[in-house]
Design brief:
With about 70 residues, the chain is mostly beta strands. Helix content is about 0%, strand content about 40%. The protein has a single domain (about 10-60), classed as q5lls5 like domains (HSP40/DNAj peptide-binding domain, Sandwich). It has strands at about 15, 20-25, 30-40, 45-50, 55-60. Strands 1-5-4 form a three-stranded mixed beta sheet, with no helix packed on it. A two-stranded antiparallel ribbon has the order 2-3. Strand 4 and strand 5 form a beta hairpin. The N and C termini lie far apart (about 45 Å). Bound molecules: zinc ion (ZN). Zinc ion (ZN) binds near residues 24, 34 and 51.
Length: about 70
């Protein structure tokens, strides 16, 4: 919608992780931090952070604990 806002973020980064639970607090170094949230990849093996729109993907072969 607003083309003017396009300059701020190099968003939609994909982060590969090896655990089903990750904590995301944004890109603090770039001044884009947000309150820390814990994301659970157990379902689909990936999740998008609702704050910074990073996509976290569970690494292939990573174990997801089942209780
Ligand atoms: Zn985030």
């Amino acid at each position: 919608m607003s083309a003017a806002a396009a300059s701020s973020v190099s968003a939609f980064e994909t982060v590969t992780v090896s655990t089903a639970k990750v904590a995301c607090d944004g890109d603090v170094a770039a001044g884009l931090g947000h309150p820390r949230v814990f994301l659970d990849l157990t379902g689909e093996g990936k999740i998008v952070c609702p704050y910074c729109s990073r996509t976290y993907v569970l690494a292939e072969g990573a174990k997801i604990g089942h209780h």
